[in-house]
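User: For documentation purposes, I need each entry recorded in a consistent format: the amino acid sequence on its own, followed directly by the corresponding structure tokens. There are two entries in this batch. Please keep commentary to a minimum and don't merge the entries.

Assistant: Recorded as requested. Entry 1:
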Amino acid sequence: MPNIPESQLVQHLIALQSRPIAAATRARLAQALLDWFTAGWSARTLPAAATLRGLAADCVPGAGTAPVFGGGVMPAMAAGFANAGIAHLREIDDAHRAAMLHPGVVAISPVLALAAVQPLSRRRVSDAIIAGYEVALRVGEALGTRHAALFHATATAGAVGAAAATGVALGLTADQLHHAMGIGATQSAGLWQLVDDDAHESKSLHPAFAVRNGMTAAFAARAGLPGARAFVTGQRGLYALLAGDGPLGALTAGFDAPECINTTTIKAWPCCAQLFTPMDATQALIDAHHPAVDDIAAVEVVIFPHALKIAGVHWPVKAAETCFSLRYVVATLLLTGQLTINATEAPDLESPALRALAQKITVATDDSFQQAFPAKRPCRVTITMRDGQRFSALRELRRGDPEDPFDWAQLQQRMRAFAPNMDDAAAQRGTDWWAGFADGGQDAQVCMPGADLF
């Protein structure tokens, strides 16, 4: 099947490794690494992080040299599993509008785990991470919105992306890389039923399992095992069986355009990315009109329907649900002027002032907004004051989207805000290491992520 889209995608990954990496892509890779470490450091001391480290040790026992967020070293497979889960705990890892998934946790986690146990050049690590983003985002966009409403694409498309990232890191041939991605695709899973059944705490297992399965797939392909060839487009491939309805052309379109890593979103808020446009709109109203909370009569939020399929918690009953409750995050922002990590991790859900304000918030959906999804995430927030004044703001794109990006200095400020347990010395060590990926002169150096980065 030499001309199927999957084969063309594999050849694209091989070609990327033989041509110079553009300066803009190098800079974006450094930002992606900063973002991944920010997410991991932000969550490293949580009880859930300890649970993930323990689970990784149970599943892949034995000594190792790959560092894990929060301390200690493990075998590469265990470290990839644990770090992917930990970096997803706070819901601040990067995202993507069209693919509707979190690419960094599945692309970066396996590669840095491998780099800690075997000598890989910075160029090999760069190529592998870029490949992971390329595959996860292309497959996720092809699977589309119907798929994303039923499955967590970080777990489905993400497993294929993790296989690609691992395969490139291992130096697989084109044929082996194709097999690795095919094996990874057969292990794609991640049901949104866990949200319906109030099992939000297990969501971090989706990227963890995607990385474990993707790494296993690449090792299996290196060992000579074959994988599905038409793993997306076949009669029993991902598209047919996992409710695909997106553009299959996404698998092969724009090979001459900048790499997909350049199209990701870095999160501005510590909550589900489906809720960013209402948060941005609310912030715009606060900045423009400074509404006094006691004088607010009503807040109306009109949003695209897909958002509530994932972030539809009416009011949280536990911390793990705060990131998925529109009323909670908007009320918190209006009441306190910010949404901090602590507000999602240690919320005062019985606060009389917070609950009183939340009761003034109504949430509705607009089918015309859904028509713009996923290219845009439209939301309109309208605040009505007791004296009859009405303030309204419409947001279609999110702060941190490619059209409204953070710069390097802003990302460092974001890191310190989202990871307050990171001291100055750790921040400087990390900044120096991540920034090195923007420098092509360091390509030949061995990339050894030290334990002091974690």
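Entry 2:
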Amino acid sequence: MTANAIVFIGITIILCAAGLLAWFGIGQLALSGSGALERDGIARGRRAPAWVLADRDGNEHRSPPPAGSLQLILFSDHSLKSFPSVADGLRELSGGPGLEIVVMTRGASERAASTLEQLGLGSLVVLTGSPKLYGQYNVRVMPFAIFVGSDGLVRASSLVNHDWQLVKLRQIAGIPPAQDGPEEGTERRPAFRLAV
């Protein structure tokens, strides 16, 4: 009787472990590949999270931006130096009228600020974000750009690897989202998504 119980428990443990491994494998497949990256970020026309964060000088910055302006939130860190074309795109966009650019890090922002200074982008605002804030924006990979309007709605979002992608996103962000956009909580594929 005891031997049968031990065999039964052993088989049960093996089957549970196999089930868990299969479950994690399916999850890994869903989170990898280009199809998963298409679902990153927040779809155009959806509401972006609101926040108020201080930069390293103690100046407060907020999202959504003030009325009549547009905000580019670049989710990145010191690894931006590996994307010189993105840095070129940021230089091209910085100083443009009605556009605020903030670089949001996932953790401590000192290294990112130092890297931006080396890239000639020391005037950009660098904010210390958090994994939770990245999660609210549905951002897993960097550099990721999200344009937010003063109405709090996402105007454009995409993973960026090149300067032309930032420029194209800025053009898309200049087009107001349709008034009959998606309701909160409903799924809709983004109207504009750049292929990377």
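Summary note for entry 2:
The chain has two domains: 2-32, 43-173.
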